[in-house]
Every structure is written in C-alpha cells, then in structure tokens.
Amino acid sequence: MKYKVLICAFIVVGILGATAQVASHSQGATTMPASATSTPKSVLPQVSDKPVARVNGVVLTDRDLLREMFTIFPYARQHNGFPAAQEPTIRQGALEMIIFEELLYQDAVRRNMTVPPQKVKQAEMEFQRSFGSPDKYQEFLKAEMQGNPELVRQKIRRSLLIEQVLKTELDSKSMVSAAEARAYYDKHLDRFKQAESFQFQTISILPPRHIDPSKLTPQQKSELRKRAEDGLRQAKAAKSYEDFGLLAEKISEDDFRVNMGEHKSVKREELPPEVVKVLVSMQPGQVSDLVQVQSAYTILRLGAHTPAHTLSFEAVKTALQQELQKDKYEKLRSKLAKQLRANAKVELV
Questions:
Q1: Sequence-distant (≥ 6) Cβ neighbours of residue 181 within 8 angstroms
Q2: Best CA proximity match to 166, nearest among 94, 122, 113
Q3: pLDDT tens column, 191-242
Q4: What is the reported pLDDT for 215?
Q5: For residue 288, what are the contacts with CB-CB under 8 A and spacing of at least 6?
Q6: Rounded to 5 degrees, what are φ and ψ at 120?
Q7: Which domains are delineated in the chain?
Q8: Quick one: CA dihedral 267, 269, 273, 278, positive or negative?
C-alpha cells in the first residue's frame, strides 16, 4: 500500500537523523557523518529544513526531499549516502515525486475526501510496531515530531489520502482485463514466437592454446584425437546430467566446464551446422559421438530440444496483464501529474 511506502521512508529519515538532531537544533543544520565525508563516491545531503519547492504556497523542505530520495535508493544507509554519479538524478526524481504527492494531497482536500479514524489508528499502530520497541518510538517522536503524536497522525492521514486518490485515479483505471490482454496478444503474435532452441551439455577437447590450429602436426592431431576418444569413452559411461557435468568440470577445455558443461536454451542459428546436425538427431539424455568443429572435438549431451513455436495465450496471460497494467498505470500517472500541475503554482526554490 502506498501509505506504507511513505511511512517506511518517513521512518528511515527519522532514524537516520535522530542522533544528529541535537546538533541541528543549535546549529541550524544536520551534521554529515564523518564516514560520509570521507567517502567521495557517496553523497549524503545535509538537512536543515530549508525550502526546496512551493506548491500552491505549501512549502516542501529538504527533509521531504531526502525522505523521497531514500525511497528511490533505499541502500543509501548501507553506503553512507547516495552514489555521487547518480545523486543528481535521484534528487531530481525525488523532487518531482514530492511535488506530485503534494498535488495529490491538495486534490484530495479539494474533493473533501476523508479517512475513517479507525483506519488512521490502525496505521498508527502499525507505524509504532515498526520501531520494534516503545522506547525507540519515543526517541523518534522526540527527535522528529517535537514529542507530539498528533503530528504523526497528520502524516499518516496525509499518506492515506494520497493513497485514496491513487486508487481512484490510477489503480482502478489501469486494470487490464483478460479480454484486453487477449486482444493485444492476437495483434502482436510475433512477440510471442519462440525460435527453435537446444539445451545441452558439452565436453570439449581443444588444441593447445599456444599452437595455431592450422599448423598442427600429424602427431599433434593424433594425440588430440586420442584425448578426445578417451573423453568420449568416459562420457558414454555417464548416466545422468550430474555425471556428465562432473566429468565436464574435470576434463572439458571449453569455458562451459565451470557450469557442468551446460548451454542453456541456445537458438539453432547460433550453433555451428555440425553441432545442429547432431543435436536434431538425438533424444534427451543421449550422448553423441565425437563432433569435430574445425580443429576441436566436442561431445554433446542433449537436455532438451524445443521446436519453433508460439507461446499460448494462457502461458503468457498473467505476465502480459501485469505488463500492460504497469504500462497503463505509468501513462495515467504521467497524465494526472500534468493535469494537476497545469492548474497549480509550483515554484522551485
């Protein structure tokens, strides 16, 4: 739920700033931790409750901005700040979001929307429990809310009103029915076509890396063939995926040996013709004879052969509905933001 996201971000700013607020009351600014200042790759913005924007006269502060920045990049606490290269983008995105949220809240007030007291009370209880102990919650109240629980209720009520507008204007309107998804599927069938592919394992015996394959002597070719035949003998004795994979890790000389020799879902057109010719003649679990590709020898174990096909609507229905709904939601959100902003006075400070 949206209000939970807002409250969680609110908590993060409160907890992060709690120990620094004693200094900020006397100095007018939150002191940046030494660990952050000594790490040039991270940026932790200072907080002094200075205005960053005005929305129809309502002041939004750098504390509101930081709260949203933490929502966008929740790992900032672990990193002692935001990545320096990304900080401007995160800041701009956060600024746009807090302006949008304030516009949503003001719109809810204009519509005379209300939140049942019981719902506010329940959200407040959840909020308190998130601190883990009453003492920590009291510390938060003292540091961030001047010890006044009513300020917390106001924040929660505001978040719930924003959530209500989002549900009305975005959530309900962005729903995509199965019929709509089906219509999209029928119109974009090419998206759901799957090329013929193979899943297989390999054991490869290669010429010595320091020798040009085109300059191998007859004796070197004979030794290479002998090593390959010895590998084939062992591969034929492998009874399972695991047996073949462990052997690949032991004797194979290609890069796939570190992963049980496995090649996952390789399209037909991406494979050498010699390999394709063998794979199409095999059954899953079968081990091939030696396959020579240029100067190298490969042993194949087929896992699966998937013919070219089109994914059924039932197979993609859920993911497709989610994709279309997300796209529709973002378009509606962008449209709503433009509409609200067109009728508002927004000043960046």
A1: 313, 317, 320, 321, 324
A2: 113
A3: 999 999 999 999 999 998 888 888 889 999 999 999 999 999 999 999 999 9
A4: 86
A5: 278, 279, 282, 299, 300, 301, 302
A6: -65, -40
A7: 2-172 (1.10.4030.10), 196-307 (3.10.50.40)
A8: positive
